[in-house]
Design brief:
InterPro entries: CheY-like_superfamily, Diguanylate_Cyclase, GGDEF_dom, Nucleotide_cyclase, Rev_trsase/Diguanyl_cyclase, Sig_transdc_resp-reg_receiver. GO terms for molecular function: diguanylate cyclase activity. Its cofactor is Mg(2+). It is a single chain. It is built from 15 helices and 18 strands. It is an alpha/beta fold. The protein folds into three domains: 114 residues, Response regulator (Rossmann fold), CATH 3.40.50; 135 residues, Response regulator (Rossmann fold, 3-Layer(aba) Sandwich), CATH 3.40.50.2300; 150 residues, Alpha-Beta Plaits (2-Layer Sandwich), CATH 3.30.70.270. The protein has a six-stranded mixed β-sheet, with helices on both faces. A five-stranded parallel β-sheet has the order 2-1-3-4-5, sandwiched between helices. Strand 6, helix 6 and strand 7 form a beta-alpha-beta unit. Helix 1 crosses helix 5, helix 2 packs parallel to helix 3 and helix 12 packs across helix 13. The longest helix has 26 residues. The termini are far apart. Bound molecules: guanosine-5'-triphosphate. Guanosine-5'-triphosphate (GTP) binds next to strand 12, helix 12 and helix 13.
Length: 413
């Protein structure tokens, strides 16, 4: 990714250069006037440009028109801006303008660029029965490079969310025929948690209690129509930053830091809950407990880092083999579980034995060369006991597999 900075002040260029190098993974070209910016824009393709408004050879903001004529998103960084200039720039379709006021201004620029990089992969659903309003919101979102999907009422928004669960932000109007904004949010929050989907409510209704009601019903934020560009973008930016933060927190709490598979805490949280339903419906749950054989030798012979590499690749294989349909977790050290809902012990045995033999045949590539490893596995099916007791029974079967020579799968006796 390549960024163009057009700035005649050496101090500002240096600050930007420093912050970009620290925070962003991209290449940067600097131009000090319109002429050199023109040359660069003819030679190279830019993800976006950050430009000063007044340059030594172009005092009237010509640089903005030039950048936009190349279909390059443009952020204006300027010392001052009157309300006429502001209006004109927004109408031209710049991403945003930032006043050079203090260090937070430059940090905001970098945060914005960072966000724009990610926005290309962020889907936003806009639900509004007014086409004019929908198109306006779409145009604002597209200036910030989001992928935009439109729905003209609450019910079609709900259908889209069912089919496209990777939508990260829903922007919904209040008054819509059929299912209104509140009805939609209530339905959505039954299925999508705050880590999965963020919601911003919109309304032109003058009822002043609407914003609080939207938020109490599960929206993250609310915007009163008509709104100005800047407020819209700041709120979307903040909402998505909070979503990212929540997701990071969720990952830290539920995923194993080394291998990225679920951790013990997630496993117990999920199955303590599910076990009740499985028992009520007389369903089946089988757990396999896996332990890499002689793993201590890998660490002792090649070092802890190589041990880590083996754990990472072992988890990746486990996830690849089972992860699409079943729950793979790391319980700690070199011990893992796979939980199989709806499969009995015999079926799980067949799957685990296939995994075991594939692992034995294909060495793991590490920085110290290829390594053959094997795994022992114990299997137990849910009976009339607790999750802890189920794990203990799988552990006993694992002990049998180790005692019987390792590289084996055993079902509880
Ligand atoms: N590299 C690495 N090693 C770990 C990690 N967690 C635990 N271990 C090591 O895993 C090893 C487990 O060894 P043991 O429990 O003695 O078992 P083993 O050598 O696999 O032998 P068996 O299980 O009896 O086949 C120990 O050396 C731990 O230090 C980790 O996150 N990274």
């Amino acid at each position: 990714m390549r960024i163009l900075v057009v700035e005649d002040s050496k101090v500002v260029s240096r600050i930007l250069q420093h912050l970009i190098a620290q925070e962003l993974d991209c290449e940067v070209d600097f131009a000090v006037d319109l002429a050199s910016a023109k040359l660069l824009l003819e030679q190279k393709e830019y993800f976006l440009a950050i430009t000063d408004l007044n340059l030594p050879d172009a005092q009237e903001g010509e640089i903005v028109r030039l950048v936009l004529s190349k279909q390059t998103p443009c952020i204006v960084l300027t010392g001052s801006l009157d309300s006429e200039q502001r209006k004109r720039l927004l109408q031209l379709g710049i991403v945003d303008y930032i006043l050079k006021e203090n260090r937070f201004s430059y940090e905001y620029v970098v945060r914005l660029v960072h966000r724009l990089q990610r926005n290309k992969n962020v889907k936003v659903l806009v639900a509004d029965d007014s086409m004019v309003s929908r198109k306006f919101v779409r145009s604002l979102l597209e200036q910030h490079l989001y992928q935009v999907i439109e729905a003209d009422d609450g019910n079609s928004a709900w259908d889209i969310l069912q089919n496209q669960p990777d939508v990260q932000l829903l922007i919904t109007d209040y008054n819509m025929p059929g299912l209104d904004g509140f009805g939609l949010i209530l339905k959505v929050r039954e299925k999508f948690s705050r880590e999965e989907l963020a919601i911003i409510g919109l309304s032109s209704d003058s009822d002043e209690s609407l914003s609080a009601r939207f938020i109490k019903n599960g929206a993250n934020d609310f915007l009163q129509k008509p709104f100005v560009h800047e407020e819209f973008h700041c709120r979307v930016l903040n909402t998505l930053d909070s979503l990212d933060m929540l997701r990071k927190l969720w990952d830290q709490a539920n995923l194993d830091y080394l291998t990225g598979v679920y951790n013990r805490r997630y496993f117990f949280g999920l199955f303590e809950e599910q076990i009740k339903q499985i028992k009520q419906k007389q369903g089946t749950l089988t757990v396999a407990l896996l332990d890499i054989d002689f793993f201590k030798r890998v660490n002792d012979t090649h070092g802890h880092d190589v041990g880590d590499e083996v754990l990472v690749e072992f988890s990746a294989r486990l996830k690849h083999f089972f992860g699409q349909h079943f729950t793979v977790s790391r319980f700690g050290g070199e011990e893992f579980t796979v939980a199989f809902k709806g499969l009995n012990e015999e079926k799980v045995f067949a799957l685990m034995d296939k995994f075991r033999s594939q692992l034995e045949m294909k060495p793991i590539a590490t920085s110290k060369g290829d390594m053959f490893i094997t795994v022992s596995t114990g299997i137990a099916g849910l009976a009339d006991d607790s999750l802890d007791e189920l794990i203990q029974r799988a552990d006993k079967a694992l002990y049998d597999a180790k005692e019987s020579g390792r590289n084996l799968v055993c079902i509880e006796a």
